[in-house]
Design a protein that fits this description.
- The complex is a heterotrimer of chains A (95), B (250) and C (201).
- Chain A is mainly beta.
- Chain A has one domain.
- Helix content of chain A is 8%, strand content 34%.
- In chain A, the strands form two sheets. In chain A, strands 1-4-5-6-7 form a five-stranded antiparallel sheet, with helices on one face. Chain A has a three-stranded antiparallel sheet with strand order 3-2-8, with no helix packed on it.
- The longest helix of chain A has 8 residues.
- Chain B has two domains: 93 residues, Translation factors (Elongation Factor Tu (Ef-tu), domain 3, Beta Barrel), CATH 2.40.30.10; 133 residues, Nucleotide-binding domain of ferredoxin-NADP reductase (FNR) module (Rossmann fold).
- Helix content of chain B is 18%, strand content 32%.
- Chain C has one domain: Alpha-Beta Complex (Sulfite Oxidase, Chain A, domain 2), CATH 3.90.420.10.
- In chain C, strands 1, 4, 5, 8, 9 and 10 form a six-stranded mixed sheet that branches. A five-stranded mixed sheet of chain C has the order 3-2-11-6-7.
- The longest helix of chain C has 5 residues.
- Classes of the chains: A mainly beta (95), B alpha/beta (250), C mainly beta (201).
């Protein structure tokens, strides 16, 4: 079993969002299931971290580090307010 | 120690290693004095980063073993034979060294008094670490929330914090500790044997009707199995919090 | 830069022959398992390999026929974009050249696709002339699921994310269409000797 959960990328998510994200609620864009980031199934051992929906396995978030800059793609996960910034790609880390 | 506030920034900082305490043959507690620690909540973790002379870096996450009210920050690390970071932390690291870390991290797998209970804590192997922080915090704030802890380990020698857990269980203030050994046990073992299953949970866990707040921590497979078993026997999934450990290195 | 952690060296192995290790890579003696998702488990009687897309006609082989095709055993070095390299790995499989003989195409690119949804893009010239295989054995044994079994693409001259695990087919395309990691910022080509890790490198 290689899947961890959203807790495993809490530090990286904090870096990108400037906020604690494990309790953030979102909806899977593939199957519509709602849940918190902490319960996403995260595959860490890869060229990036891939967070998948625990219900349908659809890709919800992908975190990569491109030349040292962390970048997140949220196209598969619609975050509820106050984190509802849309499918952020290449979000610069909060200074 | 100041009450934990969620920091707006998560900076790397250096922590001085004060002492190393061997807990079991494979686990060691690392007592630390960070340069600028803001305090933490029970259940949170830190990220640790090691840097080799040529710049090569390796990073891992470790649950905080100390309670928020304890004097020092403590991490308890299990040495994985094929690990890259843990054999350094448990084996090479010595008092006086400095460890780079950032934290505290995590807002989901935390417990504070206001969350109430009754609490069901289910630990697999080194998954016991955040629960020690929770039990210490509970004691420090004088909470009377009832706790049932079920801790699964391979053998008696692998049980971390054994004396401290025994003391919590014997204190008579609402903490009940159950141990199950999965691979070997002493002949006169009066605790449980074998992996956690529906039958064992039925015996030691809170009934679903008591609406416990449940925390499960350990390897992924362990967590999936325990959570699945609880939900199948009627526990509310929204009252179950999980934290999976596992290899993250490459 | 972070201060050095006294006494920490990591798990790297010493490099005996630097000419075999691309820039920025470290040697490993184990075989790390990297994955972007759960391990698929397609039963062999449901497995097939397909070449389709910009071809005159699609071709497909069920497992029994596939392993009956002429195969080769090769020993190659592999390089992962996460910086580990492993030398002298031995694989057995069918050369992509052998498979492409069955179709006519003027396509210059392809997308390799796998069980579980993974994709990666390649130029046709990167998988022809003895540069790529569909491998079903590693180290003399059947390829294990965690390493991509029953069969994976093997393109050792590029970073190993291009060697798609659990591969089920190749879609030939007129244009270069970024696959899974390429969409998230990894390089379309991926030559480890030019350190083409990310788009723009």
């Amino acid at each position: 079993m290689y899947a961890l959960d959203g807790n495993a990328i809490a530090g990286e998510l904090f870096e990108v969002f400037g906020d604690e994200m494990t309790t953030a609620v979102g909806t899977c864009a593939h199957c519509g299931a709602s849940g918190v980031v902490a319960e996403l199934r995260v595959y860490m051992r890869a060229p990036g971290a891939v967070a998948r929906c625990p219900h349908c396995d659809g890709v919800t978030m992908v975190l990569v580090s491109v030349r040292g800059i962390p970048r997140i793609d949220l196209a598969g996960f619609r975050l509820a307010p106050p984190h509802d910034h849309g499918p952020i790609a290449d979000r610069r880390p909060v200074p | 120690m100041a009450r934990a506030a969620l920091p707006r920034r998560l900076n790397w900082q250096l922590a001085k290693v004060v002492e190393l305490v061997e807990e079991t043959a494979r686990t060691t507690s690392i007592v630390l004095e960070p340069a600028d620690w803001p305090g933490h909540q029970a259940g949170q973790h830190v990220d640790v980063r090691l840097t080799a002379p040529d710049g090569y870096q390796a990073q891992r996450s470790y649950s905080i073993a100390s309670g928020p009210e304890d004097r020092h920050l403590v991490l308890t690390v299990e040495r994985l034979d094929d690990g890259e970071v843990s054999p350094y932390l448990v084996g090479e690291l010595r008092a006086g060294d400095e460890l780079e870390l950032r934290g505290p991290i995590g807002g989901y797998f935390v417990w504070q008094q206001s969350l109430a209970g009754p609490l069901l804590l289910v630990a697999g192997g080194s998954g016991i670490v955040p629960f020690r922080s929770i039990l210490r915090h509970r004691a420090a704030v004088g909470s009377d929330v009832a706790v049932r802890l079920l801790y699964s380990a391979r053998a008696l020698d692998d049980v971390i914090y054994r004396e401290e857990l025994d003391a919590f269980g014997a204190a008579g203030d609402g903490v009940d500790i159950s141990l199950t050994l999965t691979r070997e046990w002493p002949e006169d073992w009066s605790g449980h044997r074998g992996r956690i299953d529906g039958e064992l949970l039925e015996k030691v866990a809170w009934p679903a009707g008591d609406l416990p707040l449940t925390y499960i921590c350990g390897p992924s497979g362990f967590v999936e199995s325990a959570a699945g078993t609880l939900v199948s026997s009627g526990h509310d999934p929204s009252r179950i919090r999980t934290e999976r450990f596992g290899p993250t290195g490459q | 830069m972070s201060p050095v952690s006294r006494g920490f060296l990591g798990r790297r192995r010493p490099v005996a022959d630097p000419s075999r290790v691309p820039p920025g890579q470290y040697l490993t003696s184990d075989f790390p398992v990297l994955s972007a998702g759960p391990t698929p488990h397609t039963p062999l009687d449901e497995w097939s390999f397909t070449i389709h897309g910009e071809v005159d006609h699609a071709v497909s082989w069920p497992w029994e026929e596939f392993v009956d095709l002429p195969s080769e055993t090769v020993t190659v070095d592999i390089h992962c974009v996460t910086k580990w390299s492993k030398l002298d790995t031995t694989w057995k499989g069918v050369s992509v050249d052998t498979l492409l003989q069955e179709v006519d195409t003027s396509a210059e690119y392809l997308t390799a696709w796998s069980d579980g949804g993974y994709t990666t893009n390649l130029a046709l010239e990167d998988v022809t002339d003895g540069k790529a295989w569909i491998a079903y054995e590693y180290g003399g044994d059947a390829l294990e699921p965690e390493h991509g079994g029953p069969a994976r693409l093997l393109v050792p001259h590029l970073y190993f994310w291009k060697s798609a695990k659990w591969v089920r087919g190749l879609t030939l395309t007129a244009n270069d269409e970024p696959g899974f990691w390429e969409n998230y910022g990894y390089h379309n080509h991926g030559d480890p000797w030019l350190e083409q890790r990310y788009q723009g490198d």
